[in-house]
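#lab-general

N.A. 3:47 PM
ok so I finally got the sequence cleaned up, no stray characters, all 686 residues accounted for. can someone with queue access submit it? mine expired

B.Y. 3:52 PM
send it over

N.A. 3:53 PM
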Amino acid sequence: MLLRRAARRLRPQTRGLSAMPTSFADYAEADETMQDYAGNVRRLGRLLGERVAANQEGATVVAVVERFRHHAKKYRDAREAGHEAEAAQTFESMANEIASLAPGTLRDVARSFAHFLALSNAAEQEHRVRRLEAHRGDGAPLYPGKTDSCAGTLDYLLDEEHVDMTKIEAALASQQLEIVLTAHPTEVNRRTILSKHRRVAELLAKRPDTQGYERNEVDRELAGVVSALWGSDELRRAKPSPQQEARGGLAVVETSLWEALPDFLRRLDATLKARGGRLPLTSAPVRLASWMGGDRDGNPNVTAPVTRETVAAQRRMAAGLLLVELDALRTDLSMKQCTAPVTQLAEESGAPSLEKLDAPYKAILDGLVGRLRATVAWADNELSSDNALKDFPKESRNSLASRFGRVAKADGVKGKAPLFDESELLEPLQAMHASLCATGFEDWAEGRLVDTIRRVGAFGLQLAPLDVRQESTRHANAIDALRAFAGVGEAGSYIAMSDDEKVAYLSQELSTNRPLLRRGQLEELVKGDFIPDAVDRDVLATALVVAEAPPNSFGAYVISQATSAADVLAVELLLAEAGAGADRPNCKRIVPLFETLDDLTNGPSSLEKLFSSEGYLERVQHRQEIMVGYSDSAKDAGRLAAWWAQYEGQEKMLAVCQQFGVEPTFFHGKGGTVGRGGNPETYRAI
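B.Y. 4:20 PM
back already:
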């Protein structure tokens, strides 16, 4: 939507592809940053035009683009003036010229507009950042006081609702917003193109602070990036593998979120301090999750081995990123004075005796570095298959995580156990923070160490724990196969049960703590041909991966097309059969996804039956996550009917949770585009 609005506002210039949004013209004189923005748009347009017109065919393309821009403005002006006949004639003229273009010219004209809009978007991104920085520089709040911002929400709670700051701090310490990264085939842009767009924004931000030689170098690189964009294929020509999708998600974490999330939390902490509060060090109000490598609903290419490899690849990257942070802390925290708990941790670190006395913080960090190196070695072993190494390469010259190779080796990995439990990393870091504050080094405590602690709280040792997603009938087929293999019932007998009979049967099996299959039989079932369908076999194989993975490798198990309480209990039994019982460290949340109109309507009654089943609420400790589907419900019933069903369904499901004393979490399946349920008013919608 933003790009389409920008396209309607572009004013044609006399040469090249440069333009400036006419809606900004009135502000240019009053706002210096707006002048910079307009200049950047013109500069990028000129660079693109010069690159396109580098040969005769390109010059023809530029001429066609300029004619279209002129006609587009003429068409818009005629519409705005109410001259419909003139507008229709102009539109017809454009349509006729488009129809007459040769395929190659038409392609390059479309590419020219697409690249210009993408470059304009990069300029707008830099402009927004600059305006925000100018806003802060004038003594304004760290965050603008919009109703959907952190500062706006805090001011509303304090000034309008008169909520005590201690309650706000307690809420931030306990609440958790989880952002889920997904991979959809609608994202066709290559990572290399996206990285070039980011580089354009970085260079535009750098340019005003340079002059002379440095300015020329920035302009030279800017021209090079624009030229490379035009010379690159913008689209993926082959469908990415699940591993490649997961690599793309890891790149987002590494290049953006790894820095942005602690920076956001630091600013949130400062915003709270300005109002007399503080963000508790132990709180992690924002965490990540990922469907890439775990979402197998309708995608048979996402298999149990792919999921296992994705877990290992994410663990490897997390260890590499953390190694960079701990190595920097080893240099920062050279102090000798410390508290007794830190002395004790240094004694247990295995460092030489002199280092324990003279540099206790460094001794602790050396021990943690060794364990993170052991984690890398464990992940490499998990990724030892040829396919895994191809799709998850060990090294990348552009990877921040690859810098772990330059971290001082300390004791290497010999005799070191991998770090699988994030508390084993978080607790020593928190102890060092408390020690620094107690011994007069609070400035150091509040620097890089706080960011590292918050990173561990937000990313853990998995970066973004995987959610598993599979369709409900696949779980029913797996339960049916389990029963038949165990000799409990004939093939098809479970499928033939009524919903009430399924709930009763599953509740009974879950309450006995007696597996249907003996140890080793489930692996035999997965490897054999007793189950003819490969996807049904993979359901059981995935349950084994979940049971065997390090703690907190997985977040939720999402059941798409969930229609009844039996769908949730079936997954619970499958995980229990694999060895992941009620106290499992992975997939603690089994999440029904209500996505069609009927599912949303029947969701409250399904939850009521689920909560009434024997022993369920005790096993989940009276907590339940519920996913609300947006895109499928909109396709099923239309947007207006779907919106109402989502609102009404959530209200009724919340009432059921309150009736049974259940703490609910709603997982909103809202994507970025309107077609996938998202919109600019996500804050109000949720």
